[in-house]
Design a protein that fits this description.
- There is one protein chain.
- This protein has 592 residues and is α/β, with parallel strands linked by helices.
- It has 23 helices and 14 strands.
- The chain has helices at 3-19, 46-52, 56-70, 91-107, 132-150, 166-178, 184-187, 191-215, 220-226, 228-242, 245-269, 279-282, 287-295, 330-345, 359-371, 405-423, 431-451, 463-466, 474-490, 506-516, 518-528, 532-551, 560-583, and strands spanning 29-32, 41-44, 75-81, 84-89, 116-120, 154-161, 275-278, 299-301, 307-310, 318-322, 349-355, 380-385, 388-390, 459-461.
- Strands 7-6-5-11-12 form a 5-stranded parallel sheet, sandwiched between helices. Strands 1-2-4-3 form a 4-stranded antiparallel sheet. A 3-stranded antiparallel sheet has the order 8-9-10.
- The chain binds one RNA strand of 72 nucleotides through helix 2, helix 15, helix 16, helix 19 and helix 22.
RNA sequence: GGUCCCGUAGUUCAAUGGAUAGAAUAGAAGUUUCCUAAACUUUAGAUCCAAGUUCGAUUCUUGGCGGGACCA
């Protein structure tokens, strides 16, 4: 049991004993005591003051005395300032953690809870390469999956590839018109970038054609529809849907190029999936659901034959679920796939890592499922994350300001290499070790940078800041780990350690207090679907350790007992850093 | 026009309704005969505005102002 829960329980018991009525842990707050006050944890008394009609001082004294009298092993003393009861926890409580619960704390992992979660993330389009926004999505999805696993969930990672539709046809048309048979192999360009270039090429040509028509006196809206390259693309989409072999072949070939490129990127950034769905297989799903919805009168048909749902009672408006020609819209297939996931995998929760621009869409999806009475409606959770903006504003493909994921990774790796070489600490490393190290540091910096911010919030990407390896960064935490490991190579951690009753120094205690909070941080991170909680925690732990051992020598401690204590503290700190960073998808080096 | 999100040091981010609003970075000043200076120490600097609820509001409510997203 965590110390906070333990305090809550003791306080509840004491209050009941003192006042002869039942209390709950929610009747009061337990916080960590602020640094400038004496004590470790604080009970905030105000809410109790009101309930019991006693002054904070009188109430605090009664409670404090009762706690110390009945739990002398835990609470050694207390003080009351205003309405705050500051409790001091016995040193033995903290040192006991090292002797008994050591492993539990370090790994923070809980037993399996029998709950199954599907985590859908990444979900790229096959017409262009991944960019910075995708990186946030990938890191977030992967990390939250790990955090949920640490909390006892079984997690299935999935991805839906948007591999069909008008945007793919644009790349295909442009390739037919301009490529002269070029391929990624013949040009040496990575497949996803290669195909992306033709998507850009399409837009360039389209723009020229539209302008030409406008200059000939054609109305803008009509010009946009009638541009020959656009008409050809529309025709290609129809041919694809009709299954024309020539079109299907080209589609398969070009998507194949893209997947080859994606595989390389996914491998570098550490994304993986248990299941990959392809929209070309799922886009017809959900049609039956439309029929059922009509029969249940959840949906209604307009005069032109299109099918709608009325969500005005939910504060939204009417939403199209099937076009007048009978074809599906996005939401239809989303319902279908949600159903399939639920049927096949019997999942308890279905998480979608999708940008907040889709908030409305996801709300509609959930509402429709709810109105249809589908059992999985309440199990859908949209893990909505904010856009990544640049210091100069938003990324816009038209203005060429999109930061490419591969370029980003390349830059991080070369920066970490350059920086490491400048410091000159790794001259005895072999070539393969060096490559691994640069990768560990570069990816660590990038992942930490994107995960340290609350996912829900729009964040600003500052290129200079992202490659900074000082302060609140991945390399800072990695460096702390490497330094601890350096100590532990020289001095083995004692297998067992006995407290001698020597008082803990403030920083020794602080390290133990922090270590105790690791499982709490994991729980909080899972509850909020927020890896930033782990990033903050791990940084704080590393930072405190740096202060700790700049003041207190480990290997040259004052006494043998202190040396053993500090070796244990160093060891659990390294283990927690390793484990916490793992939850963020970040490796930690033994040396750097 | 409608719905939703966001406004905190120069900048990028924190803060289950709780004590003197924390970090990082940039700025200023220091620390290396001693476990890796990618480190440590000190210093200066902020809640968009106005009401309301509360013992107590960065947090909750309402109204402004500013920024963003989505839906027609």
């Amino acid at each position: 049991m965590s110390i906070v829960k333990s305090i809550q329980q003791s306080v509840t018991e004491s209050l009941s004993a003192l006042f002869g009525q039942p209390f709950a842990a929610t009747d009061f707050q337990v916080n960590k005591t602020l640094e400038d006050f004496e004590g470790d944890y604080t009970v905030v008394l105000f809410s109790l003051v009101k309930k019991l009609k006693q002054s904070p001082d009188v109430l605090g004294k009664q409670l404090g005395d009762h706690l110390v009298a009945n739990h002398s092993q835990v609470f050694t003393k207390y003080n009351i300032i205003k309405g705050f009861l500051n409790l001091t926890i016995a040193d033995a409580y903290w040192t006991n953690l090292l002797q008994h619960n050591y492993r539990d704390i370090c790994y923070g992992k809980k037993a399996m809870n029998g709950q199954k979660v599907m985590m859908e993330y990444s979900s790229p389009n096959t017409n262009k390469p991944l960019h910075l926004g995708h990186l946030r999505n990938n890191f977030l999805g992967w990390s939250v999956a790990e955090i949920l696993k640490a909390n006892g969930y079984e997690v299935i990672k999935s991805c839906i590839v948007n591999d069909r539709g008008i945007h793919i046809c644009k790349s295909m048309i442009a390739w037919q018109l301009f490529a002269n048979g070029a391929t990624p192999q013949s040009t040496g360009i990575k497949g996803d970038h290669f195909v992306g270039e033709y998507y850009v090429r399409f837009n360039d040509e389209y723009k020229v054609q539209v302008e030409k028509l406008i200059n000939e006196g054609v109305d803008k809206a009509i010009a946009e529809k009638e541009a020959p390259i656009m008409k050809a693309t529309q025709q290609m989409l129809l041919d694809w849907e009709a299954g024309k072999p020539k079109v299907i072949d080209l589609w398969k070939t070009m998507n194949g190029w893209v997947y080859e490129g994606f595989d390389v990127t996914y491998k570098r950034i550490g994304s993986d999936f248990d299941i990959i769905y392809y929209e070309s297989n799922t886009y017809l799903l959900g049609k039956e659901t439309v029929q059922q919805g009509l029969e249940k009168n959840v949906f209604f048909k307009k005069e032109d034959g299109s099918v709608w749902i009325d969500l005005t009672a939910d504060g939204l408006d009417e939403k199209l679920v099937q076009r007048k020609d009978g074809t599906s819209v996005y939401i239809t297939q989303d319902i279908g796939l949600a159903q399939q996931k639920y049927d096949v995998y019997k999942i308890d929760q279905s998480i979608y890592v999708i940008g907040n621009e889709q908030n409305y869409h996801m709300k509609v999806l959930q509402l429709i499922c709810k109105h249809l009475g589908l059992p999985y409606a309440d199990r859908i959770f949209h893990l909505s994350y904010g856009m990544v903006e640049l210091t100069t504003g938003k990324m816009k493909s038209r203005e060429g300001t999109v930061v490419d994921a591969d370029d980003m990774v390349d830059e991080m790796l070369s920066t970490s290499q350059q920086h490491t070489e400048e410091l000159g600490k790794v001259k005895d490393f072999e070539a393969t070790e060096l490559a691994t190290l640069y990768n560990t540091i570069g990816m660590g910096a990038l992942k930490f940078y994107l995960l340290r911010v609350d996912p829900k919030k729009t964040m600003v990407f500052n290129p200079q800041e992202s490659i900074d390896f000082h302060g609140f960064t991945g390399p800072f935490v990695q460096y702390t780990h490497a330094r601890i490991k350096s100590i532990l190579r020289k001095e083995p951690v004692p297998a067992s350690w006995q407290a001698t009753g020597e008082a803990l120094l403030p920083l020794e205690k602080e390290m133990l207090v922090l270590a105790e909070q690791y499982p709490v941080a994991i729980e909080q991170a899972a509850g909020e679907h927020n890896p930033a909680v782990i990033a903050s925690y791990v940084f704080n732990l590393a930072k405190t350790f740096n202060s700790f051992y700049s003041v207190h020598s480990v290997t040259h401690a004052e006494t043998p007992e202190k040396k053993q204590l500090r070796l244990c503290i160093a060891s659990i700190t390294a283990t927690i850093i390793h484990s916490g960073m793992q939850l963020l998808g970040i490796q930690v080096p033994e040396r750097m």
